[in-house]
Design a protein that fits this description.
- 2 copies of one chain form a homodimer.
- By secondary structure, chain A is an alpha/beta fold.
- Chain A folds into 2 domains: 173 residues, Acetylglutamate kinase-like (Carbamate kinase, 3-Layer(aba) Sandwich), CATH 3.40.1160.10; 145 residues, VC0802-like, CATH 3.30.2130.10.
- In chain A, 35% of the residues lie in helices and 29% in strands.
- Chain A has 11 helices and 18 strands.
- In chain A, helix 2 packs antiparallel against helix 3, helix 6 packs antiparallel against helix 7 and helix 10 crosses helix 11.
- The longest helix of chain A has 25 residues.
- The radius of gyration of chain A is 24 Å and the shape is globular.
- Chain A starts with a strand and ends in a 6-residue tail after the last helix.
- At the A-B interface, helix 1, helix 2 and helix 3 of A face helix 1, helix 2 and helix 3 of B.
Chain lengths: 405, 405
């Protein structure tokens, strides 16, 4: 008998009918001869309503009390899903995060899971129950309620799968897997059968929003194999697991496009030690994530520093940078927000030299101008004009033969 | 420094503005030099919405899961009230019933409190916090979430006051105390300053719906003095406490009217041992509470048995009775639902003989015919025609000088 952990997100449990639908799916999994543990999110919209209610009372609600408040969202879902399973004649019992033994640190609203002691989960499984656990929440060693922050329910599911040494962990969502490219941009994008943690992490970081990076990192750390699939159909999804030798046969796993990038240049920065560190310290202090960085040597004695930030952070960046530019004696700050970052990702590139050259050639052959370049061991990103982004994605998708099954 | 426990019901915390209003009241109590523990209900309407949601999924939801579901209602309120206190600059921390150490038996949806270990309440108080506790809920020794059933939040407040040895327990509600009669029926009804547990219990049992009997019984058992008062004004309420000698100076504390009564007669029951027990066993098996019982000796060899039941139970009673009437050889069952029960209550009647006679005389002088009579040590009830009920209440209220301050 295999042990399966399934996670259903807010859209999948968004109303009573959808909860019943999830119950049928869960029951089918149990009837196929498995023990089943289900992790659920709050019904879609509930968390937002609770936040709105809190804001009517306090514009900066205490994080401890936000956790007490938000934890009710998942607690509602677990009870309802248990009832839906009972309605189908199944045995089921719900557990809050705390009851399931999910212990976290004390960082309210963004807690980290530190330990799981799933004694009660085992007890309920041994009694023949489907066990339904509230995702997104846990408690501190002092029994204060905590929540895990964005993507927290995925994290709960993967952590529970690790603690239970589950045979399979399925993340049900509203997309049916990870694709070689965004199907809205690249028409013949294909669902990927298997992808490595690192590749998915790069995809996530590059704007492919299947899962939060922290959940994937957790899965990687504890070597939890999981499948991303849809709760609205029965198609097989994408298996995410540690890199295998055979994965390297596929050079490029996917193409990612991030259109929410802006480029900022600090011009004529004096060419002295410590200039870059002062500039990026100022940006970091403003709590802005910097992505691609390029430093050009320009004229004698000075240099241009260019980097990208999320478009949402552009305004804040300029405020911070104009001040520091004056202080270090740079000539000024310019910004450009009609850009995009297009990336190819694949563990195979480690063993296949010349991929960067092939990428640049393909773009050049299609008259797409490259503004900036950034690489890691398993991805190559280029910053290009926004108007070329979709075309570039299509060109690269075809170039690296991703449209083929 | 005194320790005050305050309980606010669903109407008092029904929306964000009302929650802010409660926060101001709580803060004022703290600023007057008290430690304050607040027990709250779910916002009005929330529990009903949750029940409705459950019924959409299962027509007979599991009681265990109902408790998991319903407990979210009070958990929402505690977080919001803590935030509202923070917004006023106060220190406040919320605790669920379980976190507050409220241990119950395993009777889901109607659990009894078996023990309270309020260590965390003391800890939070010692840190200078207003402590806000979710009413209506607790957990079993196995850490299963339970709820206490109707009137559960009052019970939580009184049990916590007992466990903390609080100096004062205030039950805030939408009426500002216990009255000598229903002010809608008797115009010059007066608020009662002090009432004994037993008197309030009789009032409650007789249709005056200030509090559930079980909370008053709990308060009596643990000798918790409490005050019933309104959260919408600053009027002093009614103090409920053990009977004192001075209470007996007031012969009658109040007049109660119950218009939801029906009278049932089983006619010509053979006059043999065991007949009454068979009839009332049949009624009890149908889960119907019987109130006043009268047995008339009629003709030789047979007797009429008459009793009252709640009008809601009348139909069910007749079904049960017609069957048993045939079985025991009675001649038939008749029902009458245009009746009312009017009662006078007061510990003073124990030491003042002749109260019943005074009552009957007053009714007779006003041409009100008495159908049935029932008495206890501290109350006398008469069953009369429904059309005479309000008049009877007014007559008795005046007769026993309840309109005077």
């Amino acid at each position: 008998m295999a042990l399966v952990v399934q996670k259903y997100g807010g859209t999948s449990v968004g109303n009573p009918d959808r909860i019943k639908n999830v119950a049928r799916r869960v029951l089918a999994t149990q009837q196929a001869g498995n023990q089943v543990v289900v992790v659920v999110s709050a019904m879609s919209g509930v968390t937002d309503s609770l936040i709105k209610l809190a804001k009517e009372i306090h514009d900066m609600p205490s994080e401890r009390e936000m956790d007490v408040l938000l934890a009710t969202g998942e607690q509602t879902t677990i009870a309802l899903l248990a009832m839906a399973l009972h309605a189908l004649g199944a045995k089921a019992a719900s557990l809050t995060g705390a009851q399931a033994g999910i212990v976290t640190d004390r960082a309210h609203t963004k807690a980290k899971i530190t330990n799981i002691t799933p004694k009660r989960v085992h007890d309920q499984l041994n009694d023949g129950n489907v066990v339904i656990i509230a995702g997104f929440q846990g408690e501190t060693p002092e029994r204060q309620i905590t929540t895990l922050g964005r993507g927290g329910s995925d994290l709960s599911a993967i952590a529970i799968a690790a603690a239970l040494k589950a045979d399979l962990c399925q993340i049900y969502t509203d997309v049916d897997g990870v694709y070689t490219a965004d199907p809205r941009i690249v028409k013949d994008a294909q669902k990927i059968q298997e992808i490595s943690y690192d590749e998915l992490l790069e995809m996530a970081a590059l704007g492919s929003k299947v899962m939060q990076a922290r959940s994937v990192e957790f899965a990687k750390k504890f070597n939890v194999v999981f499948e991303v699939r849809s709760s609205f159909n029965d198609n097989p999804g994408t298996i995410v697991k540690a890199e295998t030798r055979s994965m390297e046969d596929v050079v490029i796993r996917g193409v990612a496009v991030d259109k929410k990038q802006a480029k900022v240049t600090v011009a004529h920065v004096p060419d002295k030690p410590g200039m870059a560190s002062r500039i990026f310290r100022a940006v970091a202090d403003a709590n802005i994530n910097v992505d691609v960085i390029v430093q050009n040597v320009s004229e004698a004695g000075s240099t241009d520093i260019t980097f990208t930030v999320g478009t949402d952070d552009l305004k804040k960046s300029l405020v911070a940078l104009e001040k520091i530019a004056r202080e270090v004696g740079a000539s000024g700050v310019t910004a450009q927000d009609n850009i995009a970052k297009v990336s190819i990702i694949g563990v195979g590139m480690k063993s296949h030299p010349g991929i960067a050259a092939e990428m640049f050639e393909a773009l050049a052959a299609n008259h797409i101008n490259i503004g900036m370049i950034s690489t890691s061991e398993i991805k190559i990103s280029v910053v290009i004009d926004l108007k070329d982004a979709d075309k570039a994605a299509g060109v690269l998708h075809e170039k690296f033969e991703l449209s083929k099954k």
